[in-house]
Amino acid sequence: MGKVLVTAPQLPIALDMLEKHHQVIGGNSFMDRAQLASQIGDVDAILSTLSDPLDGEMLSLASSDLKIISQCAAGYNNIDMEVARKRNIAVTTTPGILHETTADLAFTLLLMVTRRAGTAERLVRARKPWRYDHTVMLGTDLRGKTLGIVGLGQIGEAMARRAAAFGMNIIYSARTPKDTAQIDRINPVTQPTRRVDTPELLETADMVSLHCPLTPQTRHLINADSLAAMKDSAFLINTARGACVDEKALVFALENGIIAGAGLDVYEDEPQVTPALLEMENVVLLPHIGSATVQTRAEMSVLSARNILAVLEGKAPLTPVK
């Protein structure tokens, strides 16, 4: 029987799977750095989340028996992959599960910020007097607008399909060309999906949606210069990673009309949010709920548990990070 460290609250379905075969430590509360450091030296597996600081220093404290870090997420930027490989620790994620759900949430943000839904709901909830008025709460149509997608992976492609169904034109930036036939079949009236470089995307798009991983190259991809390159009528959507956006630069751009608005589900210093953003009516803010549906989170949890069970049985991981 091995020891499995669960670093954060986890769904019962995953805990039950693990507890049938192994000793489970945690799973009911979030572990801070000190708690993680105190436990990592005596476990065979870790079921982790994006907020866990599994950097080189932390992994140096790990037991030589640690065989797998099973990250219950699609990304793994919190894990020092170089150190993990040197120590022969398998790292797995949950690909192919959350892309449709996260694209739903990204498109929700796009609709909310362009149609001023957050502002409108706050008005009603505040019980302020209102009546139908032909001249107020005017938003922006999506039909005929250009959506620029940074990173046309599974989530980006799912976002593009939703946008095409709303009559939007799609441009994207990516390291390699993508097959966009499925996107273009949805609405043949719109222009064919085009791959462009990121500077052209920022200058051209009416709405920009980030779907790229967080890497040294994409950290602060959206900064003062890139925001200045965007249209002053443009909107920014981020459901990727918070540090892809320089939050201070974004605040300045929003306060000074450099762009029209933003919809954010992720933040540079999560769960902290730059205070100025909280006061802005042209911003929609959500608490990192991109994959938060019952069905999707259950599938993610089960896959994470299955990866751990496989490796501790001496088998290959199901979804390893290459």
What does this structure look like?
There is one protein chain. With 322 residues, the chain is an alpha/beta fold. It contains 13 helices and twelve strands. The strands form two sheets. A seven-stranded parallel sheet has the order 8-7-6-9-10-11-12, with helices on both faces. The chain is globular, with a radius of gyration of 21 Å.
Low-confidence spans: pLDDT under 50, at least 5 residues? none
Distance from N terminus to C terminus (CA atoms, Å) equals 28 Å
Overall geometry = globular
Number of discrete helical segments: 13
Major sheet, described briefly?
7 strands, parallel
User: Could you give the count of β-strands?
Assistant: 12
Mean pLDDT: 97
Order of helices and strands: EHEHEHEHEHHEHEHEHEHEHEHEH
Radius of gyration: 21 Å
What structural class do helix, strand and pairing data support? Answer: alpha/beta
How helix-rich are the residues, as a percent range? Answer: 25-40%
The side-by-side strand order for the widest beta sheet comes to 8-7-6-9-10-11-12
Hey, roughly how much beta strand do the residues contain?
A: 5-15%
Distinctive features:
alpha/beta, 35% helix, 5-stranded parallel β-sheet, 322 residues, 14% strand
Short structural summary:
With 322 residues, the chain is α/β, with parallel strands linked by helices.
Layout of helices and strands:
Blueprint: E1 3-6, H1 12-19, E2 23-26, H2 33-39, E3 45-48, H3 56-59, E4 68-71, H4 81-86, E5 90-92, H5 99-114, H6 117-125, E6 146-150, H7 154-165, E7 169-173, H8 181-186, E8 194-195, H9 198-204, E9 207-210, H10 224-229, E10 235-238, H11 247-255, E11 261-264, H12 275-278, E12 283-285, H13 294-312
Parallel strand pairs: 1-2, 1-3, 3-4, 4-5, 6-7, 6-9, 7-8, 9-10, 10-11, 11-12
Helix pairs in contact: 1-13, 5-7
